[in-house]
Amino acid sequence: MSVSSVAVIGAGAAGLVAAAFAASSGAKTILIERTRDGGRKILISGGGRCNVLPSVLAPERFVTDSPPHLLRGMLRAWPLHEQRAFFENDLKIPLALEEESGKLFPRSNKSKDVRDALVDYARSKGAEIRFDTTVTDLTVGHPPSGGLFTLETSKGELTCDRVILATGGLSVPATGSDGTGLNIAGRFGHRMIDTYPALTPLVDKDESHASLSGVSLDARLRAKSGSKITETFGGFLFTHRGYSGPSVLDISHLTARGDAPTIRATWSVRTPAEWTKDFEARSASVLTILSRYIPARLAEHLMIEIGIPADRRTSSFKRSERLALIDALTGYPLPWSGNEGYKKAEVTGGGVALDQVDPKTLESKRVAGLYLCGEMLDAFGPIGGHNFSWAWATGRAAGLAAGLSSVALAKEERA
To answer: In the CATH scheme, what is the code of domain 2-197+347-414?
Structure first.
């Protein structure tokens, strides 16, 4: 049996930051990770480049079933400019802005540099990291029996005064996410919001657009479920199974919650009036006009679907054809049958309700000395670094609070 002051379970984005700040407060800190190297989601993020942060944070675009003011307060606890300074000054990872997307990437464009810097930083602050170690159970004890908590692990028993749960959710299980922390939190009586995959590609079982696989463009999507309307804008990619890209991922959570929204796509920034004016040209190829603003393969597909001959010219363009084509361009009903689920989801929606933790320290209101952070909590943002910002902010808050609390407890015991 070994004894620690703070045990952090999970060496993902939130857990690595939590361990670093707990250790920097002077607390003896152990970080426990089931994989051999940790930070697996960091490694695969941004296509292996790691979108560390957004250039502008958008709290209003985060999704939660908890009171939104709690979410905003947790994000404000570590402002975006301070997070960037941490990576550039403390971790020595210079960030570069990708102008077209507003995302901040490491200048090296290597996600491994980010993961390794976080691991090295945590160790430099005194955290001990135990890789290849699985937590099998967590129980709450009572001092002076050796600590408030007992952790059963694949490599022995550990007792500690404070525990930080940073095990993530259920997304991309191949990286080590298996819901362990969520199960523990539920067992301890926390109010849980049903989990669901978010930021995941959509599928169309009929594969009605399989011939467009590989076609990409910027699109605006509008999802309507009852009286609720959600809009997204950004990259859209046709896949052999359905659709992906930022605009799709940011709206996908609606398809995972049983609402069955109607989704319509606008394939360009042009308005119906602008399309009408284009089609009033004296004698021009309709396909050529479309291809100026949308990919030619998509233009051909829309014309075929409506029943417009590929050689149609504006001089013989029927009014019914024109109106149907404009409707398809500005409000196309996107067929979908489901989503790719947790296997390809970038984050997990739902989790521990935000009102179950102290908004400043992230200490559980159910179990004293237990802290929760990162993807386990009921909040996620759009793609583009927002979810990393959430992980960094909540990980730091939990780490500082747990570390300082443990140090204060140790001083009391010595007094």
So the answer is: 3.50.50.60
